[in-house]
Structure formats: C-alpha cells, structure tokens
Design goal:
One of its GO terms (cellular component) is cytosol. The protein is α/β, with parallel strands linked by helices and 567 residues long. The protein has four domains: 5-224, P-loop containing nucleotide triphosphate hydrolases (Rossmann fold), CATH 3.40.50.300; 237-392, P-loop containing nucleotide triphosphate hydrolases (Rossmann fold), CATH 3.40.50.300; 394-449, no CATH class; 489-562, 2-Layer Sandwich (Alpha-Beta Plaits). The protein is 40% helix and 15% strand. It has helices spanning 6-14, 28-37, 44-54, 69-79, 99-112, 129-137, 147-155, 172-177, 181-190, 206-215, 249-260, 272-284, 298-309, 320-323, 343-350, 371-381, 393-414, 421-428, 433-449, 504-514, 541-550; strands at residues 2-3, 59-62, 92-95, 120-123, 142-145, 166-169, 196-201, 220-223, 237-243, 265-268, 289-292, 315-318, 333-336, 360-366, 386-388, 489-494, 525-527, 532-537, 560-562. The strands form three sheets. It has an eight-stranded mixed beta sheet with strand order 1-8-2-7-6-3-5-4, with helices on both faces. A seven-stranded parallel beta sheet has the order 11-12-10-13-14-9-15, sandwiched between helices. A hairpin with a 4-residue loop joins strand 17 and strand 18 (532-537). Helix 4 packs across helix 5. The radius of gyration is 28 Å and the shape is globular. The structure holds adenosine monophosphate (AMP).
C-alpha cells in the first residue's frame, strides 16, 4: 500500500500491519456482523481507508475489485449513521456504474448494517420505478444508485439529497467511461457542500483527477503499492491462474487438483465460512481436506497440522490468519481460491512453496471481475502469472490414462506376475492376447479412477484490458469506434434521438445499467434527429433489446429493435 503526500504517509506509518477490525475503531454492531460473516482481519485497503473515513475525511482511493474496497467504504458509512434516524431521507449516497454493482453493494451494506437496523435501498435502471419510489418513501438511510436512475428520481422529486452527509463514487473511472460525467456533476450539485466525499477507482485518468480536485476537500490519497518486494519472492514457483465463473469454482478446483496431484497443498479462502464450505465440498468429492481458521482452538489446529504432516490429509483449506507462521515441509502447492486482496498477501502465500530448491506451484482461481487485481499482482511481483484454461474432461481422462499406464509399467518392471499366467492362458484359448490385455487395463483403470462421469466446466474468457487512457475524451466525445476486434456485432435501432435530448452517454448508461455489458462493450453510436443506432456484441443483442424495452430513455418508453437491413 502506498500513500501519497506527507500527512498521508505519516498516517500510513501509524497504521499497524496487524490492526484488527476492532483497532480500526468500528462499533460493536459492525464487529459482530464481520465475525458472523467470517471475516478474520481487515484487508490493507480497509486498514488504510476505514479510520480516516470514520473521522470524516474525504478520500481518493485507487483500488480494484477484489481488494475489499466495498467494505472499506461501507463500514465507515454505516459507522457514521446517527443512532436516532427519525427522518426518511437518505444520509448517504453511493453511486456505482451498473445495476449488478448496485445490487451487490446494497447487499453488502445490508449484511454489515443488520444490527444497526440500516435501511439500504438500491435504485437502478431496468427495474420498474414505482417499486423504487415505494422503497424510498418508506424511509432510507443509504441509497445505492446508478447515476442515470438517481438523477431521474431526483428530477421527479422522489429522491431528496438535502440530508446526505456522505457521498461515495465507486468505480468512478467506469462511470466516466460510460458517459455519466454530467449526471454525476448534477447529483453532486444537489448534495450539501459540507458533506464527506469518497471516490474509489481502479484507474486514475486525468479527467477523474480533475473531477476529484473539484469535489473532494483535502482528500487522503490511497493507492495499491507499485514497488516490487524482493523478500519472499520465490523464483522457483510455477504460477498459473484459471479464469472461472464463481459457480464453477469447486468443480474447477477439483479438476485442477486431479491434474496436478499435489503431495500436500494449502487452499486459501477469504472467510471462515468459505473455509468450512469448501472443506465440506472437497471431502464430499473424495479429497482428504482439513479446515484451518481463526475460529478453531489451538488444540484443534494442532490436530489438523498433525494429520497434514502425517499424510492423512492432503489438503489444508485455510484463511491467511490461521495459516500465518505455518511451515509445512512437504507442501508442493498453494492454491488461491480467490485472488488475494493485496499483492503482499499473494507473495506471502506463495512463499510457502518452492523452498529448498524444489519447484513449487501456485494456482489462482480468478473470477472474471477480479482479473484486474491479478494484473496488479503481476506488476507488483514482477513475475508473470500464466493464465491457462481449466483442464477439460478430455485432458483429465488423458491424464488418468497416463497414470494407469505408468502404474502398469511399474508393475511389469517390478512385480511377480507369474501367479496370473494361468488366467491369461485360459483366456487366450478364446481371445487374442491384445484383447485380454485391454480388458485387464480397463479393470485396473476403473478400479483406481471410478467411472468417467465428469461434467464439462464452462470456459470463461477475460475481457481485454482497458487501453491505457490518459483521460480527456470529453463528456460527449465518445469516439464512434467500430468494434473491429470484438467479434460479431449487432446494430440496434432506438426510437429516440437528438430531438429528445439523447446523448451517447444516455445510451451507454442505459445499456450498461440494465444489462451485464460494460460501457466499453458498446460499439459505435450514431445519434440522428429522431432515432439512434448503437452497436452491441451480437451475443448480447437480445438481452439489450429486452432490457431497453422494459426501461426508459430520457424518461420515456422508446422503440428498441434490431436495425432492419437497408434495402
Ligand atoms: P471487493 O473488493 O469489495 O469486491 O471485495 C471482494 C470480496 O472480499 C467480497 O466477496 C467481500 O465479501 C470479501 N471481503 C472483503 N473484506 C474482507 C475481509 N476483511 N476478510 C474477508 N473477506 C473480505
């Protein structure tokens, strides 16, 4: 973690690397929620961001998904809610680029703020407005919104921002990319000036910096470290990552373990609950896995370590806290079930293998949305992580056959096979020797591997990295680019254009806010007087049409369909 500026650096120095959530000054209701969720310790960004935010300071944080940034701002927002909240208007506003994130962030706030009775309402495009109006009218403490919908509700007089004490802009670069700059300005103009403003962004383009300069007051700047740590960097570690959807992770882990066949491995998870769940899943799938986390007594932990050292267990599923200081001689593999929250954590974890001249293996499972953090880790450690596809069923079968072949060869070289001669000889009266051998291999193979009933794991590809932008494209200056490198595209007709006040940002915002697409997935946009044309990936065209038909653009229902080919 690097912190800019003199006062900021001093603050960072005071921040103890081992600070607990309680050390961060959080109230008991929040601490209880974190324990319930199985969070054992704050991530680095949380250690840096929580105390100053709790103290009311403005903050400019450069952090990607996977660092724990959501809790880094959600906990202080909740902490600062007054005990008595008689009014119904929001006290905090969190702005996010997409519907997906709005739901996710409001769920996180809801989970952390349960014991405080925090009322959290997400509002985003695509959902019928009346439901959101009812939720707002019922009284709310924190609103999590996409900018377009927030502005819409503000203009209808349904969202009152006069009591907002904290504004958070999350994934701010993404919001600018999607053309929300004007909407953000309009919203910020409605929030009292003496508010606290917090901005999180994965990248810090110039345009964002200038926006921060205008709206943040003496902000503390926090960013992920860029320096390369030399200590703990293990050169003899083969580093591999697999991109998998969350739901496919247990199966993917099983597949990778089957192909790698580690002598002993540690699988790192983020929370106690994840450790318990994954241990159970792995045992259910026939692995000998043991859980290790901070909720266990020393005696329980010693027993687990004994089983790993003695070879009765092959997998240890652990949190960072529980695995701290742990030294296992025979460890061959370290698996990150999620991308670690900080590059330093990654370095610590993989430093446990590749000792004493042996080659170790580090495997990371990456959900598509956390891929940026993987890039950060690569940059910080200065060593490449090879992204590979999860072994397919065919790979796995080939690997199993190879193991059977090796076992047979060993038997041919070493075992006394004479006593089986009579079996083969009687069978050769009826069958060819080759056929007898094939049947014997089949039986041996199935005896060790069981039946071949593996399911295929869907392949996920990473979105290409965002090109390095230095910012100023201008709010309306979305380039009319053609998606030459993005595969098939479809052109959609939208029945509103310049005369209805439609800007490119409205279309990108509507699409990204209401579908799974990101701003950058949207291709060329043409705005004519009465209509607009917009390019989207062919694979997502139907989803976009359905979503846009169900929502409004500039407050109106509009025709949306695929563009008819010109005659
Ligand atoms: P984020 O970077 O905010 O998207 O968070 C990534 C994931 O880490 C989320 O699933 C959080 O629930 C989880 N998480 C955040 N903070 C912690 C923590 N201190 N300990 C364990 N898990 C955490």
């Amino acid at each position: 973690m690097r912190v800019d500026g003199d006062t900021n650096r001093q603050l960072a120095d005071e921040q103890d690397e081992t600070a607990t959530f309680a050390d961060l000054g959080l109230r008991p209701e929040l601490l209880a929620a974190l324990t319930r969720l199985g969070y054992e310790e704050p991530t680095p960004i949380q250690r840096e961001a929580v105390p100053p935010m709790v103290a009311g300071r403005d903050l400019l944080g450069q952090a990607a998904t996977g660092t724990g940034k959501t809790a880094a701002y959600a906990l202080p927002v909740l902490q600062r809610l007054p005990d008595e909240r008689p009014g119904g208007d929001p006290l905090a506003l969190v702005l996010v680029p997409t519907r997906e994130l709005a739901i996710q962030v409001s769920e996180a706030l809801h989970r952390y703020g349960r014991d405080l009775g925090a009322r959290v309402v997400p509002v985003y495009g695509g959902q019928p407005i009346p439901r959101q109006l009812r939720a707002l009218e019922a009284g709310v403490d924190v609103v999590v919104a996409t900018p377009g919908r927030a502005l819409d509700l503000l203009q209808r007089g349904s969202l009152h921002l006069g009591g907002v004490a904290t504004v958070v802009l999350d994934e701010a670069d993404e919001m600018l990319d999607m053309g929300f700059a004007e909407d953000l300005e309009a919203l910020l103009a409605e929030v009292p000036e003496e508010r606290q403003t917090v901005l999180f962004s994965a990248t810090m383009p110039r345009r964002l910096d200038s926006m921060a300069r205008r709206h943040l007051r003496d902000p503390l700047r926090i960013q992920v470290a860029r320096e390369v740590p030399t200590e703990g960097q293990a050169p003899r570690v083969r580093q591999t990552a697999f991109v998998v959807a969350r739901a496919a992770k247990p199966a993917a882990l099983g597949r990778v373990l089957d192909v790698e066949s580690p002598t002993a491995a540690i699988v790192f998870c983020r929370t106690r609950d994840e450790v318990d769940d994954l241990t159970e899943t792995l045992n259910g799938r026939g692995y000998r896995a043991e859980a290790l986390h901070g909720g266990m007594s020393q005696e329980q932990r010693d027993r687990v370590m004994g089983r790993l050292r003695g070879g009765t267990a092959e997998l240890l599923v652990a949190t960072d806290v529980a695995a701290r200081g742990l030294d296992v001689e025979q460890l061959t593999h370290v698996v990150n079930y999620d991308v670690p929250a900080a590059a330093e954590t990654y370095v610590h974890r993989i430093g446990r293998v590749g000792r004493a001249g042996r080659e170790g293996v580090a495997i990371t499972l990456v959900e598509p949305r956390a891929h940026r953090m993987l890039k950060t880790i690569e940059r910080v450690t200065g060593s490449p992580i090879h992204v590979e596809r999860v072994p397919t069923v065919a790979d796995l079968r080939a690997r199993r056959l190879e193991l059977t072949r090796a076992a047979l060869r060993e038997s041919l070289l070493g075992d006394d096979l004479e006593r089986f001669r009579a079996v083969v000889e009687t069978l050769t009266d009826e069958f060819d020797v080759m056929e007898v051998a094939l049947a014997a291999v089949k039986l041996a193979h199935e005896a060790t591997n069981g039946p071949d009933d593996d399911e295929e794991i869907p392949e996920v590809t990473l979105r290409p990295e965002r090109p390095q932008r230095d910012g100023d494209r201008g709010d309306r200056g979305r380039p009319s680019r053609s998606r030459s490198n993005g595969g098939d595209t479809a052109r959609l007709f939208i029945g509103a254009g310049r005369s209805a006040g439609v800007r490119p940002g409205d279309l990108v915002g509507a699409i990204a806010g209401e579908t799974g697409l990101r701003g950058r997935d949207v291709g060329a946009i043409e705005i004519a007087e009465r209509f607009s044309l917009v390019e989207v990936p062919e694979a997502a065209a139907e989803e976009v049409v359905t979503a846009l038909r169900a929502s409004t653009i500039k407050g109106r229902k509009v025709t949306v369909r695929r563009e008819r080919p010109r005659p």
